[in-house]
Amino acid sequence: MKGLTSRQVAVQALTEIDRGSRANVVLAAFLEDQGRGLSQRDKAFVTELVQGTTRMRRAVDHLIEHFVKRNLDSDVLAALRMGTYQLIHLGTPAHAAVNDTVEAAPRRASGLVNAVLRKMVDVDPQWPDEATKFSYPDWIWDLFVNTWGAEGRESLISMNAPERPRPRPDGYIQGQSSRWVSEAVDQASPGGGILVDLCAAPGGKTTAMGPAWSKVWANEIDPARARSLEKIVDSYRPGVQVVVGDGTKSPFRDGCADAVLVDAPCSGLGALGRRSDARWQISEKAINRLASIQDALLEEALRLLAPQGVLTYSVCTVTQAETSDVAESFIGRHQEIITLGLQGEHWRKHHGGGLVLPHDFGTDGMAIFQWKRES
Ligand SMILES: C[S@@+](CC[C@H](N)C(=O)[O-])C[C@H]1O[C@@H](n2cnc3c(N)ncnc32)[C@H](O)[C@@H]1O
């Protein structure tokens, strides 16, 4: 039997994602299964089509709505979105974007897909506002622009062309700003000792730590994620001990750690490029709920920390609620900690901590705070 084309695999994956499945999970599974006959180059093309179309969903839907007024089945809509994305954003030659997308569309809708994409070839896009043009929900657009002004706008635009991280020397692929967090953890404790990483999966930061640590514990609440953490640790940092549990109620004794990293669950608003569907999944309401989990994780981290130990808090988001507000309320509750200055010119100063906005270096956005326990 003839294998599927790149565009057929992409349409099927986009249909799954539109029904609510996570883009990165669907893509990985489809490339391995439906796309197994494809070359590496074709797989990269499927990735570009799926991630790009998912990111630009609001923008392409705005254009499609000019030509189609009724609701469409997910698979037909997926083909139209993918064709429009190629024409408007990828600059694919019209004959390939139209003909090859029609070939990949459900047969029952090939007439409609052909007619709409032929009209799309001549469209000069007019956008009602920048949130539509750059394809973000209004609340995310407003939050960035209200918080960071023109730099918030730049951040959002840069997340539509996300980082393609280079592998580390050991082969693991980790974003640059995530590596800077591991470096900061190492730099603040040159003598090493015992490190507890309270929110460790998938293990990028744990496995990037330097050699000074005599013992590293990697804790993760989600059993499935802890299993993949174990595999990553076995390959890239054997000797790290994985623990499955809630980091707000960990099994570690008081004062057992020389350093604790809380790389907390967060809204991920600094990583919207890497997670193409995240902008459509996250709700504004989640931010306050996440901030209270972040508070609880910091309290537990402090319990584990020995005097003179260093606590690092990091999140791949840039909201005030999850960065400066969490940090300021934490130091307000604890006289026994002092704020440490950060090394590394990449960090902007941010309420005693550091921040990288996505457009600074074309990486994920990241915030970091470090404190030393004095007594
Ligand atoms: C930002 S990710 C960590 C990324 C990881 N440090 C890395 O660099 O690869 C946050 C992780 O915390 C986990 N998590 C969420 N709530 C937690 C909790 N209460 N205790 C421990 N882990 C938690 C999530 O399942 C997720 O794997």
Mean pLDDT over the full residue set = 97
Level-1 CATH class name of the largest domain: Alpha Beta
Residue stretches low in confidence (pLDDT < 50, at least 5 long) are none
**CATH homology superfamily name of the largest domain:** Vaccinia Virus protein VP39
Radius of gyration: 23 Å
First and last CA, distance: 70 Å
Could you walk me through the main structural features you see in this protein, from its secondary elements to its overall organization?
This protein is α/β, with parallel strands linked by helices and about 375 residues long. It folds into two domains: about 5-130, NusB-like (N-utilizing Substance Protein B Homolog, Chain A, Orthogonal Bundle), CATH 1.10.940.10; about 175-375, Rossmann fold. It is about 50% helix and about 15% strand. The chain has 17 helices and nine strands. It has helices spanning about 5-20, 25-30, 40-55, 55-65, 75-90, 95-105, 110-120, 130-135, 140-150, 150-160, 175-190, 205-210, 225-235, 280, 285-305, 325-335, 360; strands at about 195, 215-220, 240-245, 255-265, 305-315, 335-340, 350, 355, 365-375. Strands 1, 2, 3, 4, 5, 6, 7, 8 and 9 form a nine-stranded mixed beta sheet that branches. β7 (about 350) and β8 (about 355) form a beta hairpin. α1 (about 5-20) packs antiparallel against α2 and α5 (about 75-90) packs parallel to α7 (about 110-120). The radius of gyration is 23 Å and the shape is elongated. The model has no long low-confidence stretch (mean pLDDT about 95).
